[in-house]
Amino acid sequence: MCRCFDVLVHIWQDFLTIAKEEAGSRVVETWLKAVSLFRWDQETITIYVEAPNAFVKEWIQLRYKQLFEVHLGRLLHVENLKVIFFIKSESTEKEGEPAVFLAARKQIVPASVKNSLVRRTTGQVNGGLNPLYCFDNFIVGSSNSLSYAAALAVAKDPGKLYNPLFIYGGSGLGKTHLMHAIGNEIHKKNSNARILYQTTDCFVNEFINAIRFNKMHVFQQKYRALDLLLLDDIQFIANKEQTQEAFFHIFNVLHDSQKQIVFTSDLFPRQLQGLAERLRSRLEWGLVTDIQKPQLETKIAILKKKASQHNTLLDDEIAEFIARNVHSNVRELEGSLVRIFAFSSLTRQPLSLELAKSVLGDTCVVDKTAEKIDFEKITAQVCKVYSYTLSELRSSNRAKELSLVRQIAMYLMKKMTNRSLREIGAYLRRKDHSTVIHAFDRVKQTINHDATLRMTIKSLEEDILQQ
Ligand code: ADP
Ligand code: MG
Hints:
By secondary structure, the chain is α/β, with parallel strands linked by helices. The protein is built from 22 helices and 8 strands.
């Protein structure tokens, strides 16, 4: 089972990725990366976010609170998430701080993990390379093997074979990962190599600022002096004529002196609109490779690799279940896994297929029949057989027989639908969804030795299915 801080770190990274799409990378780089997740309190459905000072806290609170509430809530698999921003110094003050909060300081993200987050906020370590993206943890399948081989070849012999290397493919399929892997590999072999990973967005901003502050020579110099330039998402240079012009010259200087350049893009160069012809032709000078959506086996291998990075072994059936149900891309695949880990860790339940189903249930189609069965049908049938009303099922009355009938209803709702424990709990007006887990386990155990109950439940199921 993964540890809580691991989960928070991953959730935070996922959140930043989403925030980048929603609010733009400038917001993420400038504001969001200045804060960190401090603690998650499952009981009060509250997440504490630590800001370095009042200015950052207020800025974020005013503008991005909703972004936090919506997306962190989704990543944590909860509704109505409360987000509390506080300043670092506030947390050490004795007064005014909830006791639970003080106690919780012990379980914060450990310094090593925190530092790695902080480091990333303060700028570029090793030319902006993310050490977590390397060749070793990139899973190769038929969908990405050509790009992988090309990236590896470029890393072995930069500037010689394929220059530039242009990798294109849909979002979340591993382009950025491969790009960092090239950089990390070259850095490993030659720590003096001048390497820069840059998003095209940042490149454009840098260029604009260089013009604004009359620093063109510094800008040009910085790029021309590189041994390896990794320019991510080059499609964003479209329609920015002046930036294209400046980049054209940088490209020529680097290429002439056999310095390696790597591009990624969501489209093939010829499909990119708003690009000067002479630049476009240069993008195709070297090798152009693509990455496609991974096949089932590759998806399973990726999931297992990611799980092992969390020190967790993933059962074949769980891996296959996730792989079959996530179709979009690898980022989404990872996101699903993180959600399952988070749920397992936060609710202290072991990883199981059931748990995976309950977590992914609302986002994917698990079983067509399960989709059609709703709570009403189940409770109506249970009420009919046992002569109770829905209000009685929903009441707090704990009379023995009624309690059992309520548990049977929960068991069937869990077994026959893809809905989450929380939804089941909410439908039956239970405050805590752990009641549902308890009910499910209890009924499951009882039917092992109670043949009458087993028969009753079986016939209940059949009746519900026939409706
Ligand atoms: P892109 O740049 O194409 O949008 P990324 O490189 O950011 O995609 O990949 C998204 C996530 O998926 C990253 O966390 C990356 O590590 C992971 N990923 C993608 N492809 C693979 C793969 N083949 N093996 C392992 N992880 C992968
Ligand atoms: Mg990318």
